[in-house]
Design a protein that fits this description.
2 domains, about 45% strand, 7-stranded mixed β-sheet, about 300 residues, 20 strands, mainly beta, globular, single chain, 8-stranded antiparallel barrel, Immunoglobulin-like
Length: about 300
């Protein structure tokens, strides 16, 4: 598999490197910083990009993050070993950036009540390692103050290989399987009854999967609409082409995959990246619909 072969080469970037960073100079980048930039290694001025965890000689693409920078402000999409993705806000400090989970309103209330922690990552470039040194902590509220908890162990993240595509974007809408994928009323009933799509379903060789959207909110009728598919974080090849969106009925667009193939039972993550292409010809992401389902 392309992903495996690409990841196995990553530990070579870390081999035989000294452990001490060269001191920065107030007059400009140090020689080590200049060399790091030439090699594409992360520095405080070039943090933006995709990274994955490496422990010893074992890269793990299931623990990864994307760092984004906009006018000196940092943010992150963090995947921590499962299918869920956290949105993180960054605060730049002298030698690192502290990223803290941005919670939903419900989780924020639970956090402030001291009932549920948030994640925090401290990310520091290690120029001589061509890597990021990262500490991962839980933040809880106690007596009105934040308390960080964890073992304070550092781990290393390196640049994600550009040759492998993987899903990064947090989900912002639901996805439905079987009857709810085929009938809007069934999908709405699931949301009304439980607040989310049904997650337990039978395993099948060809599973109907779909998202539903407000066609007017998607964009003009003159635009074309299609989607990319991801299954368990990795792209699904459908003849190498994007999958056209389904029909619009009663104002609702059906983003339908009639026969999604899930080869084995267990927990799986279905994702639809929904796009529109209008007169300008640029393909624009509308949203990402997801479902972590249990297939038996």
């Amino acid at each position: 598999m392309l992903l495996t072969s690409a990841l196995l080469a990553l530990p070579l970037l870390l081999a035989g490197c000294p452990q001490q960073d060269a001191p920065s100079s107030s007059s400009g980048p140090s020689e080590l910083e200049k060399k790091a930039l030439e090699k594409g290694c992360p520095t405080m001025g070039s943090l933006a990009g995709d990274y994955l965890l490496v422990k010893g000689n074992s890269p793990d693409y299931k623990v990864r993050f994307r760092i984004m920078e906009d006018g000196g402000s940092f943010s992150m999409w963090y995947t921590d070993g499962g299918f869920g993705r956290r949105v993180m806000a960054g605060q730049k400090r002298d030698t690192d950036v502290a990223f803290t989970e941005v919670p939903s309103d419900t989780k924020k209330a639970s956090f402030q009540a001291g009932q549920e922690p948030l994640k925090r990552l401290y990310v520091e470039p290690k120029l001589d390692r061509c890597a990021l040194r990262v500490s991962r902590l839980d933040v809880t509220m106690s007596g009105g103050k934040e308390v960080e908890r964890g073992d304070n162990a550092f781990v290393e993240f390196v640049r994600f290989p550009k040759t492998q595509e993987v899903s990064w974007h947090p989900c912002d809408g639901p996805l439905f399987l079987y009857d709810a994928a085929q009938k809007y009323d069934v999908a709405q009933k699931q949301i009304q009854e439980t607040g989310s799509p049904k997650i337990d379903h039978p395993l099948g060789p060809a599973i109907p999967a779909a998202a539903w959207s407000d066609a007017a909110a998607d964009g003009p009728e003159s635009c074309s609409y299609d989607m990319d598919l991801f299954f368990d974080d990795l792209p699904v090849q459908e003849g190498g082409k994007a999958v056209p969106a389904g029909a619009v009925a009663d104002g609702h667009r059906q983003w339908l995959v009639p026969a999604w193939k899930a080869p084995y039972s267990g927990n799986h993550h279905f994702e639809l990246y929904r796009y529109k292409t209008c007169d300008a010809g640029k393909r624009e992401l509308i949203g990402v619909s997801c479902l972590e389902a249990v297939l038996n």
